[in-house]
Write a structure and sequence with these properties.
alpha/beta, Spore Coat Polysaccharide Biosynthesis Protein SpsA, Chain A, UDP N-Acetylglucosamine Acyltransferase, domain 1
């Protein structure tokens, strides 16, 4: 894998993950109590012995840059590196990235000097565990110019993805981005698996290109997106193949998808399992173990450095440095934790200013909610979406897909009912 380059796309606005993306880019959103979304593709690369990695960034990228810089450092005797390629104005390009293909086009000269055998293009906002070596081997053995990683999906889900039609040799003959018409779906039914008509092959947004082919399909073109433009056109001029992946894969596109994917990690045997021999890497923080006193917990992941007193917690992710007070009830919730510990002096200052401490105050109830980092939830607060709203904007909170989200550094005064 020494001659494979990985390019991770991390520049989108992530508007459907608002308000989690108000202060950070989508790949920098915390998951699983201590990780960030960007850790997933980078860890998959490292396990596959891919050491030349580029991350393309654009919106709200400061925290993402800091996380990558602090986490992925190789020694002086290694050829490996994780380089950040931020959108910039040059003599050739004066606009920001306009789409996935446009982002790669504007940066392709940066990594073309490496003379790679293949270029692996990845998304920075998906949950999955894949051995890229199998994908690359399939690409090489098939003699393909381009290979798409695909996954079987139901007919009901097919309208949300790019759907491919492949023959018995995995060569793709048709590609529709989010087909809506029944006639289009009927044309793609030959891509079904297991002999059933309601299964389709969905593109995962993971591509392998031969470098000369990547240059060819991008040069002289202003087309912006791989799925919408580049891949459908390339099918007519190049050998485009499919690599079927049958493991867990989740595209974190909405608050609901993010919420459910996180909570699923607390299942007894989760589909996306953090507790496997091959770890996902993240920034080492050297925190003490979590401390719990007189608590009841059921299906809970608790991050390092957390302190919990007399709380009842079920089906929840508790992030690093979380502080949860007595008589707190947390059910189906993500508490992202904090970036720092508060001292007694800090808490005294909080009382003088009339604001809650960072964390969850005594007697509060948190249900079907996401509490972002460094949020201050007062005492006897109820965050339960009592009015069963689907979407709403409030003072220091938002409701999306029925999930209450308190944004980063949000303050919810004592006694508030949401």
């Amino acid at each position: 894998m020494d001659n494979v380059i990985a390019v991770i796309l991390g520049g989108g606005r992530g508007t459907r993950l608002f308000p989690l993306t108000t202060r950070r880019s989508k790949p920098a959103v915390p998951i699983g109590g201590q990780y960030r979304l960007i850790d997933i593709p980078i860890s998959n690369c490292l396990h596959a012995e891919i050491r030349k990695i580029y991350v393309l960034t654009q919106f709200n990228s400061v925290s993402l840059h800091r996380h990558i810089h602090q986490t992925y450092r190789f020694d002086d005797f290694s050829a490996g590196r994780v380089d950040i390629l931020a959108a910039e104005q040059t003599d050739e390009h004066v606009d920001w990235y306009q789409g996935t293909a446009d982002a790669v086009r504007k940066q392709v000269r940066r990594f073309s000097a490496n003379k790679a055998d293949q270029v692996l293009i990845l998304s920075g906002d998906q949950l999955y565990r894949m051995d890229y070596r199998k994908l690359i081997a399939h690409h090489r053995d098939s003699g393909a110019d381009i290979t798409l990683a695909v996954q079987p999906v139901s007919g009901e889900a097919a309208r949300r993805f790019g759907i491919v039609k492949a023959d018995v040799n995995d060569r793709i003959s048709d590609f529709h981005e989010k087909p809506q018409e029944e006639t289009d779906l009927a044309e793609l039914r030959n891509a079904s698996t297991g002999g059933t008509d309601d299964r389709y092959l969905a593109s995962m947004g993971i591509y392998v290109f031969n470098p000369d082919v990547l240059h060819e399909v991008l040069s002289g073109s202003t087309e912006e997106d791989f799925g919408k433009h580049i891949i459908p056109r390339a099918i007519n001029s190049h050998r485009v193949h499919a690599f079927e992946f049958d493991g867990y894969w989740e595209d974190i596109g909405t608050i609901r998808a993010f919420f459910e994917a996180n909570l699923a990690m607390t299942d007894p045997v989760p589909s996306f399992d953090l507790y496997e021999p091959r770890p996902f890497y993240t920034h080492p923080r050297f925190l003490p173990g979590a401390k719990m006193e007189d608590c009841t917990t059921d299906r809970v992941i608790v991050g390092a450095g957390s302190v919990l007193f007399g709380a009842a917690i079920s089906r929840a992710i508790i992030g690093i440095r979380s502080r949860i007070g007595p008589d707190v009830d947390v059910n189906r919730a993500i508490i992202m934790g904090a970036d720092f510990f508060e001292t007694e002096e800090d808490r005294a200052e909080n009382r003088e200013m009339g604001r809650p401490d960072v964390g969850i105050g005594r007697g509060s109830v948190i249900e079907n909610a996401i509490i972002d980092k460094n949020a201050r939830i007062g005492e006897n607060v109820q965050i339960r979406n009592v009015d069963k709203l689907s979407d709403a904007d409030g003072d220091q909170y938002f409701i999306r897909d029925g999930i209450v989200v308190v944004p980063k550094k949000g303050i919810i005064p004592s006694g508030t009912v949401i």
